[in-house]
Amino acid sequence: MAEGNFARAVRQKVCGAGEANQGPELVNVPRPGAAEPGSVVVRITARPIHPFDRIIIKQSFSIGMFDKGSWQDFVTVSEKDVILMPHDISDEDAAQLIINPWTGYGLLKDINAPKGSYVLQNGAGSVLGRIIIKLAKHWGIKTINLVRRDEIKEELKRIGADEVLNVTKEDVAAKVKELTNGAGVEGAIDMVSGSQTKLAAACVKSGGKVFTIGSLESSDSVISVNDLARKVSHSFWSLTAASGDMQELMAKEIPELFQAKIIGSLPVVAKFPLEDYETAMEQAEKQARQGKVLLVG
């Protein structure tokens, strides 16, 4: 807990896989004073641990000096970057509304599938996958969802999935061809990469889009020249590349979708105080698919 003139912050001095990377550490930093005009001091009470947080901590990324992260008691930001949340949204849900809901919303908007058409996604059992299912259902878009476990099929159908296929047992490409009368899906969302990118691209219509957003299988994406010849486009999708207009739209509409219970409450599997960040990261590694681990307090 912040005390006196000091506050807590989890900081990391060196990134990368070498010996110099000693990992993050909890330090005391000066507590911010009154904000300058145009700025806001935010007291942070809930912080989700995202997969990319763990990647940045362990791998080599050139991110420069950065002190605006959420793993601290306070952060001073520009008031234009503050998103006001309705009072009936809890801190735990509000802390999660940016990354996964914004990503699902942005991906579907960029694919721009007409009502009644199909979008395919792998990694469909993840928190993001479930959000995409719910948003697509709300907008009248059909989803073909790829999983690796049969026991998750009915659960996904209950929340709105149209088709759920087990990639380890079923001929996904043949089933997609049957469902779309040979045309292919409008677009695909690839959370897995590796060989699953190739499968996703094979299922997309000529001129369609494949957006890779994760690397659960491999850091390499594979795509057939045959699909490139069909003008199937493949790119990495990043939330940070969303236009200012799109970000404003998401900031307005996603809390409304949450309040209307289209998205629903976001699952939290565990909460840890900020000083227990190491245990929290271990837990997040084990339970990434079930929901978020939060650093609170």
TrEMBL record:
InterPro entries: ADH-like_C (IPR013149), ER (IPR020843), GroES-like_sf (IPR011032), NAD(P)-bd_dom_sf (IPR036291). Residues 23-295 form the Enoyl reductase (ER) domain. It holds the Pfam family ADH_zinc_N. Coiled coil: none annotated. The keyword Transferase does not apply. SMART domains: PKS_ER. GO terms for molecular function: NADPH binding; oxidoreductase activity, acting on NAD(P)H. Keywords: NADP, Oxidoreductase. Transmembrane segments: none annotated. It comes from the Eukaryota. This is Enoyl reductase (ER) domain-containing protein.
